[in-house]
Amino acid sequence: MFRKKTHQPPQLFFENQPVSIRRDRRRKSVAIKVTDNRISLHLPWRCPLSLGEKFLEQKQEWLKNSLKKQLNQPVRRYNNNSQQPYLGQSLQLRFKPQLTSSFILNDEQIQLKLPTDSDQRIAKNKLSEAYQTLATDYLPQRGWQIAKKTGLMPARFRVRYYKSRWGSCHAGGEIRLNWQLVQAPISVIDYVLIHELCHLQEMNHSPAFWRLVGEQMPDFKIQRQWLKQQGHTLLF
C-alpha cells in the first residue's frame, strides 16, 4: 500500500488497487468497506489522511481475505431463467415478450417484458427498473409499519439510489432508503429501517445509539453481519 504523488487530490492504493477516499461530517471513526471488489476508506470530515493510511496497514489481512472472498463469489447472471432475489426469496427471472406491462411479480417469478433472446445488459437494466418500482411501493410501507411499532416517527420516507449505503437519516426527519435493499431478507430490511429510525433520536453511532437499536431489535448484529457479508451481491 502506498500513496501516489500527483497534483490531484491524494490517492491511496492497496496492492495496486485504488482505494476511494470518502469523508463524512457525521462519521466519528475510520472504516474500510469492500464492495464489488472495490475498496473505500471512510473518514471523519477532519481526520488526517495519515490516520486512514495507518488503519489500512492494520487491516491488510482483513482486506486480502475480503477481496479473495468476493472474487470467489459466483458472478451474478441476468439471463432468462436465472435466479434473482426479492425480499430474501430466490425467484426465477423470465423474459415474456407478450406482457402488457413492463414486468409482473408473482410468488415464483419476476417476469420482464423482453424478447426471450435479450442480452444480459438489457435484462439487467430492465430488472433494476422493476426493483425500483417494487422498492418505491414496499420500502416506505414497511417503514411506516416499523415506525409505528417502535414509536420513532419520521417526517417521510424516500427511496433513491445509493452506491455504498443502504439508508440515511436527514435533518427534518426524512429517511432515505436504497432501492436495492428490496432484494434483501425482510429481517435485514427491518434492521436498516430501525437503524435509520434510531438516528431520529441519536444522530451518531454512539453507545447510546447502539443501545437504542438493540432495544428495538435484539438480534440486530445478525442482520448487520448479513449486510456486511452479502450486501455486495445486491448491488447493480
UniProtKB/TrEMBL annotation:
CDD domains: M48_yhfN_like
PANTHER family assigned to the protein according to its UniProt record, in alphabetical order: UNCHARACTERIZED PROTEIN YGJP, UTP PYROPHOSPHATASE
Ranges for domain YgjP-like metallopeptidase: 28-229
Keywords, comma-separated and alphabetical: Hydrolase
Name of this chain's protein: Putative metal-dependent hydrolase
Organism: Methylophaga frappieri (strain ATCC BAA-2434 / DSM 25690 / JAM7)
Pfam family for this entry, one: YgjP-like
InterPro entries: UTP_pyrophosphatase-like, YgjP-like_metallopeptidase
GO molecular function, one term: hydrolase activity
Keyword Glycosyltransferase: no
